[in-house]
Write a structure and sequence with these properties.
Shape: globular
CATH topology of the largest domain: Endonuclease, Chain A
CATH superfamily of the largest domain: Endonuclease Chain A
Oligomer: single chain
Strand order of the largest sheet: 4-3-2-5-6-7-1-8-16-14-13-9-11-12-17
Radius of gyration: 24 Å
Keywords: Cell membrane, Membrane, Repeat, Secreted, Transferase, Transmembrane, Transmembrane helix
CATH class of the largest domain: Alpha Beta
Main location: membrane
CATH architecture of the largest domain: 2-Layer Sandwich
Distance between the termini: 60 Å
Protein name: Cardiolipin synthase
EC number: 2.7.8.-
Function: Could be a virulence factor.
Strand content: 15-25%
Length: about 475
């Protein structure tokens, strides 16, 4: 009897093993098929397929959580008014300088949007300058307020914004707020709860407190947008937190740059918010409260470029590539995280080798040490090609800006890394304006403190070099 029971148990165990192996095989095949059909980057595709076969369950869970980077939104592109839809064939704008007509045509093809003239830009440093201007604008709101922020803390700064939004709503303005479901706090962010208690309509972008209902941990809305009455907009890199009030000496001060925008291009920014709010709350915003007629406010030509892991994938990165190839004299940029993909690295290298001055300013120490390590393991080809990489000392600067030839500039929320270029929902503004470009160029060049050289990289101890090279392998998700 014992022998029969032993054989039965052995058979059952063997059957269970075969069933588990069969399930693992099916999962691995399923992941492999999905990767082959969806992943364009060869290295990433090989890595995910290998992980799925080596560890079918664990690898597949990782792929579902971090590897699937396409989201279908009901509103996937900026809409245009009927008067703007006469001809979709890219045409150079009359407001763009002659040397940049080809770039204008290319970006119009990428975005589907024309440049618009008649805008005005003002630049602010840190929350110390940006917050008073933003709160003043909310305080003057009469018809609508749209606010989107990756980080929105429930601290003194956050509470001031909550109170201002509530006051605007009490005056009769329609108010809508989007907070990222990860950046502002995973388990029901305190600022979101405060807004809800105040009765202010607020939505969390791609959020669920239940991990199994949160399959898109990587896909965040990184935009920083404030639009008042559809006429005045603020965008750039500034989140909402006490850390951005540098003059008040917080524990971890964060320097940053933000912009106030007036003029017809504000409609592009509003349409971007409308698309996000439709996705978050299934409510379509329309009418003159949100989209009023806009008169010229200045002499600046601009265009919004959105990017995200849906129909807008890699649009910001593609615009950057186009701008690099059009440069004739100089490329200046500053970014808190510098881990561009190989295409952009090669484009910068080629620009430097044909005699263009390429200056990149990065922080000495960011708020993500893994990114700092990976950066040191990633920039060797740039230094060898003559790209000048400069270190900006503390406190940490979160600014992102790019200029070309002192005439064209690119500002907004996107960092120079794969997360911003492929995974996050981002918004940048392309600006053709010598005055703003020169000011940004002076700002970028003024941040240079020490130059990073090949000798500095070679001086790293072997364990440090190995660490940096190993962390660099995580580049697609840092």
């Amino acid at each position: 009897m014992e022998e029969v029971l032993t054989r039965w148990l052995g058979t059952t165990a063997s059957l269970r093993t075969e069933i588990v192996a069969a399930i693992g095989l099916v999962i691995s095949v399923g992941v492999s098929v999905h990767v082959l059909l969806r992943k364009r980057v060869v290295g990433a595709a090989i890595g995910w397929i290998g992980l799925a076969w080596l560890a079918p369950v664990f690898g597949s869970l990782l792929y579902i959580t971090f590897g699937i980077n396409r989201v279908e939104r009901r509103a996937r592109r900026l809409k245009r008014r009927p008067s703007q839809t006469v001809d979709d064939t890219p045409q150079p704008s009359a407001h763009v300088p002659e040397p940049y007509r080809a770039l204008d045509r290319a970006v119009q093809a990428i975005t589907g949007l024309p440049t618009v003239a008649g805008n005005r830009f003002a630049m602010f440093r840190n929350g110390d300058e940006a917050y008073p201007a933003m709160l003043a604008a909310i305080g003057e709101a009469r018809t609508s307020v749209a606010l989107s922020s990756y980080i929105f803390r429930d601290d003194a700064t956050g509470r001031a914004f909550c109170d201002a939004l509530k006051a605007a709503q009490d005056r009769g303005a329609e108010v809508r707020v989007i907070l990222d479901g990860i950046g502002s706090g995973y388990f029901f962010p305190a600022a979101w709860r405060r807004l809800r208690r105040l009765g202010v309509p607020a939505g969390l972008f791609m959020h669920s407190a239940l991990p199994w209902r949160m399959p898109f941990l990587n896909l965040r809305t990184h935009k920083k947008l404030l639009i008042v009455d559809g006429r005045v907009a603020f965008t750039g890199g500034v989140n909402i937190s006490d850390g951005n009030r540098v003059a008040q000496k917080p524990d971890f001060p964060i320097r940053d740059t933000h912009f106030r925008i007036e003029g017809p291009v504000v409609e592009h920014l509003t349409q971007a918010f409308i698309a996000d709010w439709l996705f978050v709350a299934d409510e379509e915003l329309d009418g003159e409260a949100w989209l009023p007629p806009l008169a010229p406010a200045g002499g600046v030509t601009a265009r919004v470029v959105t990017s995200g892991p849906d129909a807008d994938i890699e649009k910001i990165a593609t615009v950057i590539l186009q701008a690099i190839t059009c440069a004739k004299e100089s490329i200046r940029l500053t970014t808190p995280y510098f881990l561009p993909n190989d295409l952009i690295v090669n484009a910068l290298c080629l620009a430097a080798t044909r005699g263009i001055e390429v200056d990149v300013v990065i922080p000495k120490k960011s708020d993500h040490r893994f990114v700092d390590w990976a950066t040191r393991g990633h920039i060797d080809p740039l230094l060898k090609s003559g790209v000048r990489i400069w270190i900006d000392g503390p406190p940490f600067d979160h600014s992102k800006a790019m200029t070309v030839d002192g005439q064209w500039c690119f500002i907004g929320s996107a960092n120079w890394d794969s997360r911003s270029f492929r995974l996050n929902f981002e918004l940048n503004v392309e600006v053709y304006d010598t005055e703003l470009a020169r000011r940004l160029e002076a700002f970028i060049m003024g941040k240079r403190q020490t130059r990073l050289t090949l000798d500095d990289l070679d001086a790293r101890l072997l364990p440090v070099r190995l660490r940096d090279a190993a962390v660099r392998l995580l580049l697609p998700y840092l």
